[in-house]
Amino acid sequence: MQLVIGNHNYSSWSLRAWLLMRHTGLKFETLRIALFTPGFTDQIKQYSSAAKVPVLLDNGQTIWDSLAICEYISEQHLNGAGWPVDIQLRAHARSSCAEMHSGFMALRNEMPMNCRRTVDNFSTSEASRKDIERICQLWDEALKISGSEQFLYGDFSIADAFYAPVIYRFNSYGVALTPQLEAYKERVLNLPACQEWLELARQETEVIEEEEV
């Protein structure tokens, strides 16, 4: 099984699939293609006509898009454990991931993922503040309905993998959180897989100027 990803430091969509697979102990090979380099498009098209990362290659199957990859991994390799067992929690988790997948554009544009950087006194726009408030609301709801003191829905799930890039953003840009959400953020950041991703990001030398806000 092979997972094609972009830069560890910048590629939030790559992180989502990689984190689920690494945290759950799956065996796979990582193929890294640096984003926005002259050969990127030609290289990624060797794996997917969508020309975007991540891409999963498994048993002759090509799966692209991080949500599709996570669904496939849960179904084919985790016996469905990528999602909570409880139907209410599973529905909420899927809705949360779908909202992340299609929304929060202000936060994405103004606060790009940059794992190795810390920004002091970052000023957010009203649109970004609304995105942050909504994300915190989702996390609060998840922790409340699950009663979890670990991850959003109890055990680590696709939802935690999907919000991991947001956690790196909150960490980089110094977003203030309630004690409960700060503790959740730290639990995710301290996962061995997240520590590994951060170290790989720090080892990279590429700089994408538009991501260095």
TrEMBL record:
The protein's matches in InterPro entries, at most eight in alphabetical order, are given as: Glutathione-S-Trfase_C_sf, Glutathione_S-Trfase, Glutathione_S-Trfase_N, Thioredoxin-like_sf
Sorted UniProt keywords? Transferase
Q: Where is the secretion signal located? A: none
Q: Which GO terms describe its molecular function?
A: glutathione transferase activity; maleylacetoacetate isomerase activity
GO-annotated biological processes:
glutathione metabolic process; L-phenylalanine catabolic process
| GST N-terminal domain boundaries | 1-81
Q: Which Pfam families match?
A: GST_C_2, GST_N_2
Source organism's superkingdom? Bacteria
Q: What is this protein called?
A: Glutathione S-transferase family protein
Q: Which organism is it from?
A: Amphritea balenae
